[in-house]
Write a structure and sequence with these properties.
- The protein is of the alpha+beta class and about 170 residues long.
- Helices cover about 40% and strands about 20% of the residues.
- The strands form 2 sheets. The chain has a 4-stranded antiparallel beta sheet with strand order 1-2-4-3.
- Helix 1 (about 5-15) packs across helix 3 and helix 2 (about 40-50) packs across helix 3.
- The mean pLDDT is about 90.
């Protein structure tokens, strides 16, 4: 589970306790990093359905999250944003957990696809130069990323025009 998923689950539980859908607890990286590390905008949507001010709903969510030691600071920003900063201990715990995970916290896909990566491209009839390495490195990197994500990858290192030297 990703850090954002875990935070969204915690904040979603707080929304659920107040009688709102847990989906409103979606946590995203802060759009204003000088204010917080993460933010939740669900109080605005909850305010529309409840007919209450978003800041009031956000304050109730913040109050239920305040006891969690993973948060260094959880506060309301007008008009009802929930700004979240994690504690150093929570970040260190997450880093340790990620470092020991075989997939480094990245979940493999549930719907693997077949991917063909066509890369390389030097013309074997001409002299190679360092520029030919760029496409090879990028293609190999993409193939490795798709494999890591759980997709079935077919690699096709394509060598260009065989030219008249082979004729």
């Amino acid at each position: 589970m990703s850090l954002l998923s875990q935070l969204s689950e915690l904040v979603g539980q707080a929304f659920s306790q107040l009688g709102f859908p847990a989906a409103l607890g979606e946590v995203v990286p802060s759009q204003r990093p000088e204010l917080a590390q993460f933010q939740c905008n669900g109080a605005m949507a909850a305010a529309k359905t409840a007919g209450r001010p978003p800041a009031e709903i956000a304050a109730e969510v913040v109050e239920s999250l305040a006891a969690n030691e993973d948060f260094a600071r959880v506060e309301v920003a007008p008009p009802g944003f929930i700004n979240i900063n994690l504690s150093d201990l929570a970040i260190a715990r997450w880093a340790d957990l990620t470092a020991t995970d075989h997939h480094l916290g990245y979940p493999p896909t549930n719907d693997p696809e077949s991917v063909v990566v066509d890369y390389a491209g030097p013309n074997v009839s001409k002299a190679m130069h360092v520029g030919h390495l760029r496409a090879t490195i990028i293609g190999d990197s993409l193939a490795r990323l798709f494999t890591f994500a759980g997709h079935q990858v077919t690699r096709d290192p394509h060598f260009g025009d065989w030219g008249s030297t082979w004729g």
